[in-house]
């Protein structure tokens, strides 16, 4: 299944914005990875409250960003750009927090957050 194909099939899409579709796809993945990392952090014996909060906040922002990015009926460019910018910053902060821990789940989450932020950075100039 491909989100790229789904967006491309929309009647209002004349030309697929590949960068935006990729950012949406990775934001969906990032939301799930952050949720999983927060759950794993809650099972750790050390105090992981800040990491859990960062991961859950990031998951929510990524999920909202992905949803806005795949909507093609009408347009709300200012809101989409603001969400992409928020997603970039939230992913950066989550990656920084996860990088403070030696848990493998945190390492994977930080990596996904960095990838998501980079994809959103690439997509941002294509939103017009």
Low-confidence runs: none
In the CATH hierarchy, the third-tier topology is known as: Substrate Binding Domain Of Dnak, Chain:A, Domain 2
Strand residue content: under 5%
Continuous helix count: 5
CATH class identity: Mainly Alpha
CATH architecture field: Up-down Bundle
Question: By helix and strand content, what is the structural category?
Answer: mainly alpha
The major pleated sheet works out as: none
What is the average of the pLDDT values? Answer: 94
**Structure summary, number of beta strands:** 0
Shape: elongated
Helix content: over 70%
| Domain module tally | 1
Distance between the termini: 27 Å
Q: Supply Rg.
A: 15 Å
What is the helix/strand order? HHHHH
InterPro entries: Csp_YhjQ, YHJQ-like
Pfam family, one: Csp
Protein name: Four-helix bundle copper-binding protein
Organism: Sphingobium olei
